[in-house]
Every structure is written in C-alpha cells, then in structure tokens.
What we know:
This protein has about 190 residues and is an alpha+beta fold. The protein folds into 2 domains: about 5-35; about 50-190, Lipopolysaccharide (LPS) transport protein A like domain (lipopolysaccharide transport protein A fold), CATH 2.60.450. The chain is built from 2 helices and 10 strands. Strands 1, 2, 3, 4, 5, 6, 7, 8, 9 and 10 form a 10-stranded antiparallel beta sheet that branches. The relative contact order is 0.09. Mean pLDDT is about 80; it is low at about 30-45.
Amino acid sequence: MNKKTGLQVLMVFIIIIISAWFYLKYFTKNFEDVKDTPAVEKIDENQNSTSTYIDDINYISTDAKGNKYQITAEQSEIKIENSDIMFLTNVIAYIFIKDSDTVKITSNFGKYNSKNYDTIFSKNVIVVYPGHKITGEYLDFSFLSDIGTMSINVIYQGDKTNLFADKIEMNLSTKDTKIFMYNADEKVLIEGTK
Length: 194
C-alpha cells in the first residue's frame, strides 16, 4: 500500500471516530437523563405583561338619585399604569333610571372608567328603550350627568319616524334630545313610517 492510500484510510478512520463520538455525545440520551431533566415552563412572548385580563365581568353602580348602571362584558383588559380604565369586549349595559324606562346599550367594544362610570361604547352600538332604537358607531356616555352622545352613522328608529344624522345628544333623565349634522349645509334626514 502506498503512502497516499494509507494516509486516506487514516483520515477516513479519524473522521468516523470523530463523527461517532459527536453523535454519542450530542444526539443520544438515555431514558434516565430525560426523566431527570426538569420541566421548563413555556412563556408566551406575545402576551402583554402590562395588562391584566378578566373574563365575564359585571359592574353595578348607583348614584345619589337612585339611578342604577350595570355593565357586563365578555372580557376586560386593565392596564397596569391606569387601573381605573378598563377596555371591554362584547359589552352590554343597562341604565335603570328611577321612575322611568330601562335603557339597554350593546356594543362590540367599550372603555369604562371605574371612578366616574363614564363609558365609551364603540363599533355596532345599539341603544334600545321602549319605542325607540338608536344605532351608531360611537357612544360617549356619562352616568353622573345622564348624557349620552351618539355619533358616526347614527340611525334613530321610533314608532312612526326614522331619522338619519351625524350626531344625537340625549339626556336620559329628561328625555331631551338634540340632533346634529357636522356640516351646516346638510340637513337631518327624517322619514315617516307606517
């Protein structure tokens, strides 16, 4: 055997030994080694660590006049830096006005202030009370002043009237309602129903 062939055989043999050692060291473990390995908890890096989430919330508050406000949601997100504000999903609210009708409000999202009970309802907002239905995309409601301002694609449906406007402001205690268009040149559209 010549020198060149002997050197090639020696190199192949060294490569096989190194490969076998590497395989045994890094790619095989016996059963006991796996059993003794402590479990590692997986942490979801996409989860927001600056918020707390609560499912199926229900808050009830009553004012000095005896009016009651109840708000429920499928989920609430509370930011750690401002725990008085809650961001709600799939919201249902009831306003029980003393000696008056109950008002029901539903929306896809809400922003609730637990200190003053002010609530902003957004996306697919529906306000219903006997004989009246108002839909829109944004409702800013203050429980303390009983004022609600509905805006963006507002449609009012009453027993005999449909109304289309940019903004409706309503006082739930007195039932006073103001209807606006943002552009002074545009008119509120009113159509009668049978």
